[in-house]
Write a structure and sequence with these properties.
Order of helices and strands: HEHEHEHHHHEEH
Strand content: 15-25%
CATH topology of the largest domain: Beta-carbonic Anhydrase, Chain A
Oligomer: single chain
Largest sheet: 5 strands, mixed
Number of helices: 8
Helix content: 25-40%
Number of domains: 2
CATH superfamily of the largest domain: Carbonic anhydrase
Length: 192
């Protein structure tokens, strides 16, 4: 059985036996928070447990490295929608140690894409179109650097209120320990 068939078979039983009922909630985050975190598989269950988050407590946005790569990209759009449409009052940017984006080498990614059938012509066309793949497919030297950059972009975004707390943290992907990088309350004059 292939993966999609396995998922659909399980889903049918899940719905028929009403297992979804324990997850019912609204679209508004109960803890009025947004979490931008990494897509790392080790964080799927660990991060919510380590933060005492239940289903419905937070809007969780995941990408490679918990990075805001562009102030007007899809991650920022999601954060802005969460703040203005879904009543979120705080932002948490949470990276993790041993992140795959640490030291990510664009040449390696491009070589692997070519090995899977992406032609040199496509790579060249993208370059001629103004897309700098070497910059776009580059990570960071240390996870702290990535968190600080993302926090700074969010905190200084022209479409977000200046008093919106934006926190930066790094998680240990084995123990779930959270290390504070930046407390958002300090930036708005509040006591943390």
């Amino acid at each position: 059985m292939n993966l999609i068939s396995e998922i659909l078979n399980y889903n049918k039983e899940f719905v028929e036996t009403k297992q979804y009922q324990e997850f019912l909630t609204t679209k508004f985050p109960d803890k009025r928070m947004v979490v931008l975190t990494c897509m790392d598989t080790r964080l799927v269950e660990l991060l919510p447990k380590a933060m005492n988050l239940q289903n419905g407590d937070a809007k969780i946005i995941k990408n490679a490295g918990a990075i805001v790569s562009h102030p007007f990209g899809s991650v920022m759009r999601s954060i802005i929608v969460a703040v203005y449409q879904l009543e979120a009052d705080e932002i948490f940017v949470i990276g993790h140690y041993d992140c795959g984006m640490t030291g990510l080498n664009s040449e390696s990614v491009i070589a692997k894409a070519k090995n899977r059938g992406i032609s040199d012509d496509v790579i060249e066309t993208l370059g001629h179109s103004g897309i700098d793949l070497s910059r776009w497919l580059t990570g960071f030297n240390h996870v702290r650097e990535g968190i600080e950059k993302s926090v700074n972009i969010i905190r200084n975004h022209p479409l977000l209120p200046k008093n919106l707390p934006v926190h930066g943290l790094i998680m240990d992907p084995e123990s779930g320990r959270l290390d504070l990088v930046e407390a958002g309350y300090e930036s708005d004059g509040s006591v943390s």
